[in-house]
Amino acid sequence: MGSGKGLALGVALVLAGLAVGVWFVTREATPPFEQARLTVAQALGGTESTEGYARAAGPREFHFPEDHGPHPEFRTEWWYWTGNLETADGHAFGYQLTLFRKALAPREAERASTWGSRQVYMGHLALSDIGAERFHAFERFSREGMGLAGARAQPFQVWLENWKVEGTESSVFPMRLSAEVNDVGLSLTLEEGKPPVLQGDKGLSQKTEGEGNASYYYSLTRMPTRGTVTVDGRPHEVTGSSWMDREWSTKSLGAGQVGWDWFAFQLSDGSEFMHYQLRHQDGSVDPFSAGVDIPAQGESVRLPRDEVRIEVLDTWRSPRSKTNYPARWRISVPSRQLVLEVTPAQADQELPVTVRYWEGAVRIQGTRAGQPLSGRGYVELTGYGDAPEPTR
User: Fold this and answer.
1) What CA–CA distances, in Å, run from 161 to 2, 147, 270?
2) Cα separation of 158 and 149, whole Å?
3) Which of 125, 203, 336, 392 could form a disulfide with 138 if both were Cys (CB 3.0 to 4.6 A apart)?
4) Element (H, E) at 40
5) 178 vs 41, which has greater pLDDT?
């Protein structure tokens, strides 16, 4: 989901009539507050007709590298990368780059003009300069027409103007990620690392009741990463590890679902952990919440909602949106003998974009089978400013 993750969030906003363009916010001090223009429920609530689009109705065979490329028969999909990076002297950074595709009409409705397009792309770029406690966030939109944005499987490439991720002529890996706005940018090389993890039921991730109310979802959970992070025009050579999520679907959130908490961790014992917790307006947890525990070697273990306990230990209030977000957690999975305490690497990692949400780097301490464990990861929190806070 990066998105269950999913942040297919805001591409739907184009359908609300927003102009295609680019804007960005770099936060070092508190800027004037701007109200978010679309809620998660509006973006993914499934009010649009699904006629003419494919649906995620059952498990399917995945084929690589083809499935790294686009699936235009579905309404929405996204390519999502996060990572924790560090310089040789210990200066830490977190990054997020997400590229979304949104179909404006079913595939049959092609347009002859090179200016015309039935596809719109949206991108989010965020950089947490943890060493300096600064956060930079950017948002961009463009149509597919005239080659301004697009995706293909072979050779692999997905791009939104000068934000792009691409493989080589003969292989998806190494994957090269580059994005720049003014004096902030990323130029990273991601190696393959572990093989793809098919989330849910062999890659079918059911989000609510009903056939087709699901996505196809896989993850690359630990990709060795090296390259350059640029802040204020100054390059920093970094190494670290990245996580990639891929989802495509036509209908996602159901009635009453207002958002999610998504957790993705890379742990010191060589394992990874992912869990998304779908939330209702009254604060209750949806039964279609789910996750996975990925051992250092061997098969992944699916984790249904009732096997994962999440306790919120602290909150953080945004000085701009006045939204209260969870800010520290204890996650317990008794069946896996796993207990983790999760803390944001810095408090303010809220993206003031069209669909406002918090997404940021986190640090982990805990135990597995009584043995000490540490790690790094990312957490995404959506829908918190869109609904009344639950009573306790």
Assistant:
1) 22, 8, 36
2) 8
3) 125
4) helix 40-44
5) 178
Task: Calculate mean pLDDT across residues 76-84.
Answer: 97
DSSP letters, 129-182, are ETTTTEEEEEEEEEESGGGTEEEETTTTEEEETTEEEE--SS-S-SEEEEEEET
Which residues does residue 263 pair with via DSSP β-bridges, in sequence order?
A: 275, 379
- Which residue in 345, 366, 359 sits closest to 85, CA to CA? 345
Alpha-carbon span 9 to 96, nearest angstrom: 15
CATH code linked to domain 9-382: 2.40.370.10
At residue 361, what is the residue type?
A
DSSP, res 369: T
- Classify 145 as helix, strand or coil: helix
Q: Which residue has the tokens 């004096």?
A: 183
**Domain ranges within the chain, ordered by starting residue:** 9-382
Q: What number is the average pLDDT over the span 137-161? A: 94
Strand partners, 215: 205, 249
**Enclosing H/E stretch for 249:** strand 234-249
Q: Is the peptide bond before 155 cis (omega within 30 degrees of 0)?
A: yes
Cβ pair 250, 277 in contact under 8 A: no
